Amino acid sequence: MITGSIVAIVTPMAETGEVDYAALDRLVERQVLGGTSAIVSVGTSGESSTLSVTEHTEVIRRTIDAVAGRVPVIAGTGANSTSEAIELTRAALKAGADGALLVTPYYVKPPQEGLYRHFRAIAEAVDIPQYLYNVPARTGCDMLPSTVARLAEIPNIVGLKEALGDLDRVRELVALELADFALYSGDDSTARASMLAGFHGNISVTANVAPDAMARMCEAAMAGDAETASEIDTTLAGLHSALFAEPNPIPVKWALAEMGLMPGGIRLPLVELDAWHHEDVRAALRTAGLLDCP
């Protein structure tokens, strides 16, 4: 089981919108050296919705090449069409991914039985470890713990990224006591509390800018060291907030560009971070020790 801080890595782009693979290599290296336990490639933070299918697969492959076996790579392969999700998951397996992260179908708002059959169909079609991803704020669809429990019985469905950001939901999932099934927070603001309550790690946006601190915070929280986890998380709290001042990945891509780690390119319909938020993000970076004070 993968535990700890898992980064939902961005897909760096030139100002003109082309994927910047050299910058991707640098970001991957920084994550590995920073103690990140695994990398999610082409998830929400990786702009899966703005990449072509060819680019989607190529970014996954290039991420795997850059990692060179040092940490697992989990490919974002979810879609609102079951057949498309199967196609993307097969491509990820062929590229060498260690697992697939599958978001609940967005826009179509399936019922719980539809969710169950969707994920079961993908699991039966592609023999790769699969992680469910529940993020109702973006999909308009909430996968309930009872459905998670049913899906956990399928051998190659091995975990869940829960991004509801509700600690009652966290406690409900932990209470299921699902054997050999990983529970990850998908909400940086509540990740520490989630891990202290029994989650196994955090699939993080904040880790893009602060891999070392997130890795140490997750390690402390999972060890039950609430004091150390709180001390580290306090320095990151501003980032947890500022990096969602506008829809992800707008703020985190701006922050990484501000740190000089990649160009500032982003694709429509996403746009660059509004200037109104610049100083808030800079202040959060300074508090975390990631940007020199003026």
What does this structure look like?
With 294 residues, the protein is of the alpha/beta class. It has one domain (4-232): Aldolase class I (TIM Barrel, Alpha-Beta Barrel). The chain contains 12 helices and 8 strands. It has helices at residues 21-33, 53-67, 82-95, 112-125, 136-139, 145-151, 167-175, 188-196, 211-222, 226-242, 250-258, 278-287, and strands at residues 4-8, 38-41, 73-76, 99-103, 130-134, 157-162, 182-185, 201-204. Strands 1-2-3-4-5-6-7-8 form an 8-stranded parallel β-barrel, surrounded by 6 helices. Helix 1 packs across helix 2, helix 3 packs parallel to helix 4 and helix 4 (112-125) packs parallel to helix 6 (145-151). It is globular, with a radius of gyration of 18 Å. The N and C termini lie far apart (43 Å). Keywords: Amino-acid biosynthesis, Cytoplasm, Diaminopimelate biosynthesis, Lyase, Lysine biosynthesis, Schiff base. One of its GO terms (molecular function) is 4-hydroxy-tetrahydrodipicolinate synthase activity. The active site is at 133 (proton donor/acceptor), 161 (schiff-base intermediate with substrate).
